[in-house]
């Protein structure tokens, strides 16, 4: 009889897949960033490759739900920086050990929780000073950091939020614009994650494929839970407030971040 503990990583991956759908539908605020720490705790660094196809699937369903409810100008302002950030991130990704990645993702998780706690202050400041007008000068550095964090941990949510939130868009257009941006970020990452330097000798490709047969197999098993999560998120947005739910998500994200930092054994680096 199989040890039931062997199924825990797959249970966590299933929960993470459902959370992808919920977050892509706009329910649960910071739920999206919890997905990566959950799956990294379960599968280690290969979780990054497992999640990307699932995120792309969630993007397609979410684009349908928020069709044409977006501000495309924000995407074009961020795009040059996003491409630079992804290329830099892919190069650095292959040079980190599993402990380094655990530490980076843990720090990003804790930073996200800190940002969410201070988000209301940022929004109050924007109300006093008027809506923020995005420019190329800010779009490029924001885009670079979004590309980097998205490559390392699929964790560009806080960066994009900081760029969009002060613009004071309606909730519907804010969600639609966020989904539009992440749909293309994830699509741009796909070839960099699939193709590696052993296939084509180009300097900007990853030293090894991040998405492979093993990660695709796990993603395939989890894929039905993504559209289910999107549907549930759209329904829950209409029926419930996510205020209390968000607090739980922030707590769990912080907890997962601390666990990953501890698992990295960072004190041994010194």
Number of strands: 0
Characterize the overall form: globular
- Helix/strand-derived class? mainly alpha
β-sheet strand percentage: under 5%
Mean pLDDT over all positions: 76
Largest sheet: none
Distance between the termini: 44 Å
Number of helices: 11
Unreliable sequence segments: none
CA radius of gyration is: 18 Å
The ordered H/E elements are: HHHHHHHHHHH
Overall tally of domains:
1
Share of helix among residues? over 70%
Write structural notes for this entry:
The chain is mainly alpha-helical and 270 residues long. It has one domain. The protein has helices at 8-24, 31-43, 47-65, 72-93, 98-129, 136-153, 157-164, 171-194, 213-222, 225-239, 243-263. The chain is globular, with a radius of gyration of 18 Å. The N and C termini lie far apart (44 Å).
